[in-house]
Structure formats: C-alpha cells, structure tokens
Amino acid sequence: MLDQTEGYTTEDGRKIGGVVMEMKNITLRFGGVVAIQDISFDVREGEIRAIIGPNGAGKSSMLNVISGFYNPQEGEVWYKGEKRPQMKPYQVAQQGIARTFQNIALFEGMSVLDNVMTGRIRQMKSGLFSQSFWKGKAEREEVENRAFVERIIDFLEIQHIRKTPVGRLPYGLKKRVELARALAAEPSILLLDEPMAGMNVEEKEDMSRFVLDVNDEFGTTIVLIEHDMGVVMDLSDRVVVMDYGKKIGDGTPDEVRSNQAVIDAYLGVAHD
Amino acid sequence: MPDQLIFGMEVFLNGLMAGVLYALVALGFVLIYKASGIFNYAQGVMALFAALTLVGIMEGQVPFSHLINAIFGTEIHHFGWHVPALAAILLTMVVMVALAWAVNTFIFKHLVNQEPIILFMATIGLAYFLEGFGDMMWGSDIKTMDVGLPQGINEVIDETTAGWFGYGFFIDNLDIVATVIAAALVFTLIVFAQYTKQGRAMRAVADDHQAALSVGISLNFIWVMVWSLAGFVALVAGIMWGTKSGVQFSLSLIALKALPVLMLGGFTSIPGAIVGGLLIGVGEKLFEFAIGAPYLGGATEIWFAYVLALIFLVFRPQGLFGEKIIERV
Fold first, then answer.
1. CA A101, CA B29: separation in Å to the nearest integer?
2. How far apart are alpha carbons A122 and B215 in whole angstroms?
3. What chain A residue is nearest to B189 in terms of C-alpha separation?
C-alpha cells in the first residue's frame, strides 16, 4: 500500500518519493453549478500524475484550484506537509508551483528569451538599489539566472528562436516556450493544462518526449491534464479520472483502463 | 541668411522645448496605460496636486488649514518653517506614492476586468476628487514655485547666435533644464523597464495579466509601482510647469494637450510619447509662425495639435509607434 513517507518504484524503475501535495475533499461551485464535487487525491515527488476525463469533467477547474486561480468552497490543499491557506495565484507561483495554460498565456510582445527569463522572477532576490548599480550580487545573480535559462532553452530545443518575439511563433513552438518558462522557475510541481491540445501527431510525440525528459532530467513532479486517453496512458505513472465533477477512478494506467466506471464514462453506457 | 529662416530656427528650438513638457505629461499617461489599460484622465491633476504639495511643504503651509480653522475656530496657516527644495521634493514623492497606493487600493483593485470606459470614468472621478482635495488641502490661491531652477534668457546662446547671425536667440534656461531632466528621466525609465527585475515584471503585467500571475508577479504591487512612477513623472512635470507659469488650477488642463500627443505617438509607446510631444511642440509653433500669424489671424496654437491628431486618427489610428491594430475576422 502507499505510505505517506515511503514512495514506490515504477515499472520502468524510477523511484517515486513521498507525498508532496494532497487535495482533501475539494468542492468547487460556480453559483449553482458544481464543478468539482468532494475530490481527494495526492501527488508524490517525482511522479507524472495525470487528471483525465471527458470535456467538462472539471479537470481544468481542478488545475486552477491547485494553482490558486480558483478557491474551493470546501476542502483543503496540503502542500509539503502543511495546510495551505487561501492564496493568490502569484503566491502559489512563488511557492514553487508553475503552470502552463490550455490557451497559452505568454508575453506576446517579448522575445522567447525574455519570456523564459520572467520564469526566474522567483529566483531574483536582489533589490532595486543593488540592481541599479549593477554590481556584485545582482550581477552574479543575473549571470546565474541567464545560464539556467539557456540550459532550459537548449534542453527544449528552442535555441534558434530565442530572440524572436513570441507573437510571431507557430502554435506548437509557443506551447514549448510556455513549458520553458514554467521550467525556468525550477518548480517543485509543474502543472500542464492540456499540453497536447490542438497539436498534430508529430508535435504530440515531441511534447510527450519533452514531458518525459523533463521528469527524467530535472526530477520534476508533473501534474497534467489531458482528454486524449492514449497519450496519457503512455506518459503517466498514476491517473485520476474525473467525470461530471466527480472522481470515478484513481490508480495506475492499467488499473484505470480496466475500471468499469471509467470505461462507461468514455464509451458510454447502454440505457435500456 | 534670410531673416525669416533665422526666426524660424528660433521658433523651432522653442517648439522643441515646449514639446518636452507635453512629452512629460504624455509619458505619465503611457506608463499607466501600458501596465493596466487605464487611460488616466487624472494625470494632469496629479501634476497639479504634486506641484501644490511641493509648494505647500516648502513654505511650511499647514495642510487642511481652512478646514481645521473652520472646525476649531483656530487661526493657523503656517508652521513657520521653510523646507529646503530637495527635502520637499522627496517628501512630495512620499505623498505621491501614498496616493498611488490609495488609488489602487480604494478604486482600481475593485475594477479589475471592467470595461475600459468604466475605468476611464473612474479616472475622471479621480481627477475631480483630486482637484477638490488639493484645493481643500493647500488652498486655491495661485502660488509661485521656486525650487532653484535657473530661469531667464540663456546668455551663452544669445551671444553665440548673435555672433553668427547678427540676431540673438531667446532660449529660456528653464526650458534647457527641463529638456535635460526629461531626457534623463526617459533614459532612466527605459533602463529600469529593460534591465531590472521590477521593470521586467512591469512589462510582463503590461503584456498578459494571467501569464504574469502564473510566474509569481503580484499585479497589485506592479500597479502601485506604476502609479507611483506616473506620480513621479507628474511631479517632474508639475515642477516644470509650476516654475514656468505659477502653480494654478489651470495646470490640470495640460492633460488635454497630452491627448493629441498620445494620438500621434501611440498610447503604448514611451519613445512615441517623446517624439509625439516634440512633434506637436515644434509643429504648433512653426505653424503659428509660418501660416497662423501671417494668414489666419493667429492663435492657431490652441487648435493645431487637435487637428493634427484628427488627421492621424484618420490615416494611422495606432499612432506613429503604437502597436498595430489587427483584428481577426
């Protein structure tokens, strides 16, 4: 059985650590509409955790709860062993939870490099005064941040467009830049909102590879949302399945695949 | 050299100097508009309020003295001390930062995601409130401002040009100082926006709120910062205009002159505000000199800027430097 402190070993031999985030009985309502109903699950260090479900199941709402864009009416979010108070999105980001958006939220007017650099804002400590004189600490900090950002840019293979304004890039590359910006924050949890949405097969394969590589290279814990079952099953270690705001399954891809409720939700049930 | 050309050159230079002041006010507009999408009608009143506060502090005026005297039946007007200019400027800046915080906390924080027209109406309200508040705080009499900036004709330019053309140019020292300060201000702002963490955060917020939040930038912090910067620019503009023509409530009308400047330069471009200001300054002075005064009976300076802005609106609505307006159909 899963334990709070001990992790588990995946099929491909990766060690998964203890619980880093736990959602306890989350309920989220918009007026009379219940978007999420009493859902609990945990996320462990180093794992790729997926939330899947048909359109309108409440997946994005769940991601927005984790990243602080929505505040649930009921339930608790536990992060690194502590109950998280109600927080603004920027505070959540400062705690080390980075995210991407389904519809891409980039700084269109800035270059790729500048966009990725904004991801480092959490790591920039020196005040305005030392920055204005551009000496010592501030300079060293800038150089370090720059080096890290360049590493991410190399890693995601976007060197050739680093000076290009983001507004001019095609969709698939924008998605990759957004991932780079999130990674630049050295997040302890990386939230990906439909990273494959709107991509062709080749782009999807690229993105899957990057997600796996990021997890492998940086040991980043990843929570991702997808409605494309095939992609998710290949990528993730454990899967939460949602339907109509409720959790209908939770477990390894194999367990979920053989879960009758999940099959019904995806394939439909015959009503007689 | 023909006389007309020599006079024209002098008019051109004076136009440039006037343009610098227009550019300063326009700069305040651009800062706030870029970062929050708010067209701040109150920018001119902020310059007035900053100038009033500065003079008040320097002369040791008791704030709200009329109100205090009316309630308590006292007769106090002055503390009886004089604050040196530099200290007074710093204190005024503290007041402007407090104002920025108050404006964000009590007004615009609650209007996030509202229509631009609603934000605009809020700034009109702010403008009238601030005008009344400034009146109540410091009184409505016209005040002279003297922070020690040099004034009067620049002798060097006068003598040099007299040597060259046989006619000495009249260039006010104050205008030269204003130009230098404005140039330094713009340079500092650009360096700040490009190379500091806060500047980068400011550009990020200007570009996309949601993305800015997701990388850990507090929108409220940036908004207070931007309103403070606009307050600082307003203070500089207030000092220049106040020194030139006295601190009076018509000062708030300079905001109207900034409108055509913005239409020329584009609402989102810092260099645009500068170039737009200079173009309007030079344009209206040269037009008056070459066409207005001889053929149209003069006083064209009052409307020239607006007509020029109208022409721009028809042919290039985004201004010289503004972001291109593209709409997908």
1. 31
2. 8
3. A132
Q: Distance between CA A178 and CA A187 in Å, rounded?
A: 14
- Provide the residue ranges of all domains of chain B, joining segments of one domain with +: 3-315
A221-246: pLDDT as tens digits? 999 998 777 788 889 999 999 999 99
The reply to whether A107 touches chain B by the CB within 8 Å rule is yes
Please give the angle made by the CA atoms of B36, B46 and B108, to the nearest 5 degrees: 35
pTM equals 0.83
Domain borders along chain A are 1-96+187-272, 110-184
Instruction: Identify which of B200, B210, B215 has the shortest CB distance to residue A181.
Output: B215
CATH class of B3-315: mainly alpha
- Phi and psi based region of residue A111 (left: phi greater than 0; alpha: psi -120 to 50; beta: remaining): beta
Provide, as residue numbers in chain B, all residues whose Cβ is less than 8 Å from the Cβ of A185. 215-216
Q: What is the CATH number of domain A1-96+187-272?
A: 3.40.50.300
Q: Which residues of A touch B218 (CB under 8 A)?
A: 88, 90-91
Residue A267, min C-alpha distance to chain B (Å): 35
Q: Report ipTM for this prediction.
A: 0.83
Residues of A within 8 A of B219 (CB-CB) are: 90
